[in-house]
Amino acid sequence: MDKDFITKQKTRTSLILSVFITGVIIFGVGYYTGSRGSIVNAETLGSSKANADLTSFWRVWRLIDEKSPSAKESTTEKRLYGAIQGLASSLDDPYTVFFPPEENKAFSETISGEFGGIGMEVGIKDGLLTVVSPLKDTPAYKSGIKSGDIVFKIDDTFTKDLSVDNAIKLIRGKKGTEVKLTIIRKDIKEPIEFKVVRDTIIVPVVESEDKNGVHIIHVYTFSENVEAKFRTALRQFYVSGNKKLIIDLRGNPGGYLESAIDMVSWFLPSGEIVVREDFGNNKEQKIHASKGYNVFGNDYKIAILIDGGSASASEIFAGAMQDHKKAVLVGKKTFGKGSVQEVIPITSDTSLKITIAKWFTPNGLSISKNGLNPDVDVSVTEEDILAGKDVQMEKAISVLNN
Q1: Would you call 259 a catalytic residue per the annotation?
Q2: What pLDDT digit, counting tens, does each position of 350-379 carry?
Q3: Of 278, 323, 332, 395, which is the active-site residue?
Q4: Which of 291, 337, 358, 395 is labelled catalytic?
Q5: Cα–Cα distance for residue pair 332/395, rounded to 1 Å
Q6: What pTM did the predictor assign?
Q7: Complete domains list, the chain, with CATH
Q8: Residue 337 catalytic?
Q9: What's the DSSP call for residue 168?
């Protein structure tokens, strides 16, 4: 059996994609240089409209020069960056962002995998800056910040109308320094203030354990090296002869698309749909299919733990397993963060991160719009937490054992 497992895993193919939390990031080049004037033919810009009238833009530019006492402090470069940021924000998409030089550098550091901060993923939900998940054993996790917490203030800055990337910029900082977060939490009337000391964040990946006759694999993020660590954990489960498996994706904010596809391929035949990539505008969907390792057949009983901190690649993995009836989902509804971003260099030190597609499960459920609902809904109370009870884990074990 062990030899069979090793043989199957050697059939893996390697596809190199760079991904960051919300989905795929495809690095490309897209420079545009325009000349000053009132009318720009929008056909050359790929717009569906006949033309774009920029008269009001240049009028405002001229009035700033003529009227504003601060005009000399605003460089041409700064004005252009501000205009581009406004253009990006007109899409009402929190994940489409223009990065001027400083923000561009910070973003590049963020996706490197190891960084200074407090260790929590944030996103925009219902127009509010929301904690997707604090990563395990990080300062945010240890301080008591929870998935679903609304970040009302960062130090003295209110987060209303603050982009995700600008929020991350304020939260991050030099190791050993403190950031103050004012949090609004459901069912608690007064805001809660957390003072969290920044540290170097090394994201945990995979851990395994056995409990009550069930093998449990905790996957904390779909970051670099997760495929190899998950494969090792699966191999241990496979050779043990155990047929009951729990994959814990609670608090997992996502990561690499290719990792999610590779990992779910251990459970699906070749060619089965893992996720649909929808580009809108009547374009054909791109189908991402299983690589077909398919080691774990129907004689295995599998449960996946999810909650409001499960997002992006976690939702892709869990959604595929649910739609193909390979696992029962236990816990609470997921975050709903399934969009694809392409990062395009604009100049040598600026870039545009733009949403180019959205994720749909094999059966066509919009991850961004709906999130995933569990098959077995299990709420966690404050009393459960204080008593050290993991009722969702207990329920998942019960489901498999019964």
Answers
A1: no
A2: 999 999 999 999 999 999 988 999 999 999
A3: 323
A4: 337
A5: 12
A6: 0.77
A7: 2-11+204-401 (3.90.226.10), 52-104 (no CATH), 114-202 (2.30.42.10)
A8: yes
A9: H
